Amino acid sequence: MTEPVAGRRRVSRRTVLLVIGAVVLVVVGLAAWVGIRALLVKDQLEAMAPMAAELQDAAAARDLARVDSAVGQLAGRAAEARALSGDPAWRIAEFVPVLGANLGAARVVSAQLDEISRAVEELIPALQGAAESSNEDGGFDIDRLAELAPSVQHTSDALTGAAEALADIDRGPLLSPLSDGVGRLAALTAEAAPVAESLASAMAVLPPMLGLDGERHILVMLQNSAEVRTGGGITGSFVLLRADRGTLDVVDQADGGQFAARTEPIAPVPESVTALYGDRVGRFVQNTSMPSDFGLTSELVRAWWATRSDVAPDAILSVDMWAVRALLSATGPIPLPDGSELTADNLVQRVLVDPYLSLDVEQQTVYQRELTSALMSGILTKDIDPFAWAEALAGPVEQGHVALWSAHADEAERLAEGPLGGPAARQQAAGADAFAVYFNDATSGKMGPFLDLSMSAGTAQCRPDGKREVAVSVSLANTAPPDAGTTLPWWLTGGGLEGVRPGDIATNVTVSAPPGAFFGGVRVDGERVISTDVEEAGFPSSAAAVTMAPGETRVLEFRFVMDSDRDFAPVVLHTPLIGDPEIDIVPVGCD
Q: Please, are residues 232 and 223 in contact by the beta-carbon 8 Å criterion?
């Protein structure tokens, strides 16, 4: 006998009600579970703020014991927050509108803090061991550096991963405190990741470069920014170092005047480089840092050095006075033959200004040789603290005052991926919105200290196809006194040897745009001018030249049409300079 229809309906309704009730209970249970865990995660994250402040203070004081303690506390909190936000119920709750975005952000923050804490926990013992070690022969403890490299790389990977994960979080739907926290952490990791990657690259190549597996030779090229070039300045001095098991010795020294100019380039130079800077790149040793490709610069330097020595350098290290100044801040003053001292405070004045005002050409050569010898010997004979050096050089490396190349392919590849790889590598590492502005003096004098400049960049949407235009503006001013042409010595003004009136400053300006950009023309003081437009080192590069009389200012504007209609946020890099130029991101109009 079949059940009545009404009975079946009652059963069906009961079943539905039971199912609905069960679902409600499950949802309420999940909500309670996730809610309780969310409060616990909130407590863990809030508790980490004072620990992070303690970690920053300890790191600034280079107190590794305090750093270790702070990291341990942070790691415990981060691990707990990650465990609380990592279960399936939490992930399901992330699909709930609005609330889910906040839960997802908290989970990502917890996971990334845990990754960073784990990496730093691994790094601290290695740092402590390196700090406590010593090299009886002086120089670097090469074995400790080699042992430290994997931990530094792990920390770099954790910071890079965190920077990418945090940048992907949409902060729009987040509650204000969480949004602010995500923003601060994203900014911190974005700033720290490139520095850590640069340090990791250096740590990976330094042990073999410093003679871990056998003797190496490093050729140091000192850039003189008083006569500016793409990579910093003219190559004024060379010092050959021998590295053996971390100990560095000076074995040879030369200045630019000891390499005679040539009628033909000393090594092949790409046509694009010649188009931008002329055939002088390979014919004068002082111009080796004109190319943005530091690999090409290094090959030119090795070719020049081969005319003097049978020792082929294994590495080329380029530094300017700002990098040397940073080292002096870590090592302390260096005594000079005349009884005075070279310090971080007087270095620029004594190297880039005073010699050209008070000494003739021959006296300058003698002075620079003595100064270079005393400087290198003084730095290398002091106790070397790798951490003090790393801290002092972090800023100059990021700003392009230091470049390093290796003749060993695996090391060269690693270096070329970061800021130590030279101008073009820095632009590549800076991302798809990066522009680079390069300056090359055409005065043939030492008027760099009188060159004042500023830069700006901005975007405009003027085209019917929606593609953006980016304008990079460069303002250059000659701050020399009005009578500079008659009162300053000819070796400072150039003496008119290159057709530039004494006292004037002639400068070639090149703007390198992201790959795929199209040339949009150059204006000087609002008037369209002829420019040189080529692709160099993989970047569309546009160049124009200007000359400024004392007191005169010239403004160049370089336009580029970007290869897509996406929004662009221009990043401006530039040649390492004596001063720190102002760079603004400003709205620009259409032509």
A: yes
Cα separation, 273 vs 281, whole angstroms: 8
Burial 4-43 (b: 16+ CB within 10 A, else e): eeeeeeeeeeeeeeeeeeeeeeeeeebeeebeebbeebee
Cα dihedral 563, 568, 569, 575, rounded to 10, equals: 10
Per-residue pLDDT, 26 = 38
Rounded Cα gap, residues 238 and 253, in angstroms: 6
Q: Are 562 and 469 in contact (CB under 8 A)?
A: yes
Residue 71 has pLDDT above 90, yes or no: no
Spatial distance between the Cα atoms of 571 and 49, rounded to a whole number of angstroms:
31
Contact (CB, 8 A) for 372 and 253 = yes
Q: Which phi and psi (to 5°) does residue 253 adopt?
A: -150, 145
Whether the CB-CB separation of 314 and 298 falls below 8 Å is answered with no
- For 235, other C-beta atoms within 10 Å of its C-beta total 26
Count of alpha carbons within 13 angstroms of residue 473, beta-carbon side: 19
Token pair, residue 197, equals: 């990657």
Q: Tokens representing 406?
A: 């290796």
127-168 tens-digit pLDDT: 777 666 555 555 667 888 888 888 889 988 988 998 899 899
pLDDT interval class at 122 (50, 70, 90): confident
Nearest one of 265, 259, 266 to 278, comparing CA atoms: 265
CA distance 153 to 346: 36
Q: Which residue has the higher pLDDT, 586 or 89?
A: 586
Q: What is the pLDDT of residue 384?
A: 67
- Spatial distance between the Cα atoms of 356 and 361, rounded to a whole number of angstroms: 8
Q: Compute the half-sphere exposure of residue 581: CA atoms within 13 Å on the CB side of its CA.
A: 25
Decide: helix, strand or coil at residue 477.
Answer: strand
pLDDT score of 22: 39
Instruction: Please give, one letter per residue, the 3-state secondary structure of 479-539.
Output: CCCCCHHHHCCHHHHCCCCCCCCCCCEEEEEEEECCCCCEEEEEEECCEEECCEEEEECCE
Domain ranges of the chain: 5-209, 216-415, 430-585
194, 419 Cβ separation under 8 angstroms: yes
Domain 430-585 bears CATH identifier 3.90.940:
no
Instruction: Give me the chain's average pLDDT, please.
Output: 85
| pLDDT single digits (tens) 225-241 | 989 999 999 988 999 99
Say whether domain 216-415 belongs to CATH 3.20.20. Answer: no
Dihedral, CA atoms, 44, 48, 50, 54, nearest 10 degrees?
150
Residue linked to tokens 């603004």: 584
HEC string of 373-420? HHHHHHHHHCCCCHHHHHHHHHHHHHCCCEEEEECCHHHHHHHCCCHH
CA–CA gap between residue 348 and residue 322 (Å, rounded): 8
Asked if 458 and 447 touch (Cβ cutoff 8 Å), the reply is no
- In angstroms, the CA 313 to CA 301 distance is 10
Residue 544, SS3? strand
pLDDT band at 4 (very low <50, low <70, confident <90, very high): low
Band (119; pLDDT cuts 50, 70, 90): confident
pLDDT-based confidence at 33, cuts 50/70/90?
very low
